[in-house]
Amino acid sequence: MASGDTLLVFLPANNVPPSSDYATFDTRNGHLVLDFRPDTANESAIFPGVMPRSYSGGGLTVYIHYAMSTATTGDIDWDVSFERIGDQQQDIDSDGFAAANSVDNTTVPGTSGNVDIVSVAFTDGADMDSIAVGEAFRMKITRDGISDTATGDAELLRVEIKET
Amino acid sequence: MTLLTTEQKQEIATDYQDELSRAREELNLTKSDLLSALNSIDQWIEDNQSAYNASLPLPARTELNARQKSRLLTIVANKRYEVS
After folding, report:
1. Domain residues of chain A, as ranges?
2. FRET pair for A100, CA 20 to 30 Å: which of A81, A112, A159, B69?
3. Which positions of chain A have pLDDT values less than 50?
4. Overall fold of domain A6-163
5. What's the complex ipTM?
6. How confident is the model at residue A29, as a pLDDT?
């Protein structure tokens, strides 16, 4: 496998939430989703994984598939960050997420149930916390609900990680 | 009665968004549009207190206190919403 290939796909059920300000489970017409609130706090979901053996050491692109519960106007901001757990790289008694990369000011779909896909790119190295092939890691996805303008919850359906 | 504080209006905005999100009722307003609407509604209530009071017949106008009159207004407004 190589550049352009899907490495991992995460579903809402794969979320291992942070201890506070976490996205919450919901269903929409039988679709399991994670609800991210629009204000008061920036809520997050955390997806644990192992970098597949097919990863060839390039950068990553994270695709966020979401719909809005109510908003049909305004924009939405998402942040994505990685934490390398690796082989004796991270003491899991604490968090070690690298700085987040963002996709901001995305106009939400004009129909609240339509799923939009946005992407966040990471270069290989410190940008993605230097995660290497075969290493455990966590990926945190945060809605910057304090800053974005769209009302109501955002519903996360899927997350894809592709090798850029 | 005085105008609501910014925090109180933000609380209303949050509750309203929660309600619409649960119902998945579409809302074609941004957060700032919603807050502007709440500001206007609050100001309208403030500006029309005298007119509301004057509309009440006796003895309600004189026997109800300000909080009781406010509560009655919310009950009527809520019922109008429920039956609309």
Report:
1. 6-163
2. A112
3. none
4. Jelly Rolls (2.60.120)
5. 0.86
6. 96
